[in-house]
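OP here, attaching both records as promised.
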Amino acid sequence: MIAALDYDFLTQFLQTRSGLALGSSKEYLLEARLLPLAQSFGLNGLPELVLALRRNPPESLSSSVVEAMTTNETSFFRDKTPFDELKEQLLPKLLEDRKTLRRLRIWSAASSTGQEAYSLAILLRESFPQVADWHVEIVGTDLSKAALGRAEAGVYTHFEVQRGLPIQLMVKYFQQESGGWRVKDELRKWTRFRSLNLLEPFQHLGTFDIIFCRNVLIYFENPIKKQILDRMSKMLRSDGYLALGAAETVLGVTNTLERVRACRAAMYVPCVPVTA
């Protein structure tokens, strides 16, 4: 069993580096994920890992600890409702308003291994063929460099492509090869991936028409949630949309965003400032 002082240090380390609020009574989780990691670095258990982290550790060790504790669970068209809302309600008007500019930018924050970003590309290709020759940019960001490496490679196992993808879409947008199923160039040309910690500045990414930031804020405490949401609201175009996870809300966190009433999914728009 991990010592109380070591547990406190690790939870504070994780919150400082990634915003992850582990809380209490998660000793089993730390041991299950960090003990194998410690051994891979030649350390004899969690006490030695904590000692190494206290002694100005190499970045490779610190980053590996954070990556081991962050969840990278994802799938194609995960939690289908937000994609349906985009297709049926939000994108038709948004694209009509952009038809002169012919430009669309989407941010998949916490994109993990890339399925969300590629799902958005498939949605556009399938349902809105008029954007085929637009300048479409889907930016996927994540803290995990290992996850980003897989996203950039765009190669998935048969099990992964079957999760959420009908067979006709799998065959249409993926090429089977010896290592699995590779995303075709018509989707890859719209996507790019880069490393990003949401605790750090991200305004350099520019402005977006749509931001997907789903199932990540639930791991943060309210002050950090507010900071992230306030910054994201400034990066949304005035008629843009922010999608959160089904269990996430801005209520009691920030007043810079308000929910789209017509949507079943957790979709938000920037609040219009009240003028005197």
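Record two, same layout:
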Amino acid sequence: MITLLRNLFCSSLGRKYVMAATGGVMLLFVIGHLAGNLQVFIGPEQINKYGDFLQSNLEIIWPARLVLLGCVALHIWAAAGLTRENLAARPVEYATWSPTAASYASRTMVWSGVIVGVFIIYHLLHYTVLVQAASLGLTGQDFAGLHDQEGRHDIYKMIILGFSNLWVSLFYVAGVGLLCLHLSHGAGAMWQSLGWKKNSYAPFLDGAARWGSLAIFLGYISIPLAVLLKVIQ
């Protein structure tokens, strides 16, 4: 077991496995989180009931949060290690470089990952930790004090207030856009790192990654757009 863990965490191949596996877990979270958020279109009763269910089952939500946090940490660690190895293997810049074989998403994976990390921290502080919105969310109201008639945290109103600010919505759209740009390459590369990407169906996996990332992007941004356009209010 010790040898297996050493090979997993101390070799390039092992770090690729770690990055792929943790990326897969986080992709599932992104999809599940989207499914939960889209319940806002059903109405305040549904989204508030969903939020109350999560907050009332801490024995479920906290282990999930810890696993997700661990995956984020391991993903960053593996990515940083692989980036250092790549730079060490090519200490001298190319005299001429033409990125014809690499997509824009693949060439910007490191920077998009860093920016997405900053976006996630802001988003968690804004909507999960509920840091005073007057200073963070630009709404002038404390989200922690919002409750519906049933005494539940009023997530519906929180979403309306948060995304009613144009700057918050624009930052959210930009952040989700970078996240999905990251996913459009990472979701396809994940199968390659795990050794499950064969030439016969590689184009299908790459296409599914790109179109799936676009669908996720459209799903997430539909919420701030619906608030700004008064579709939900």
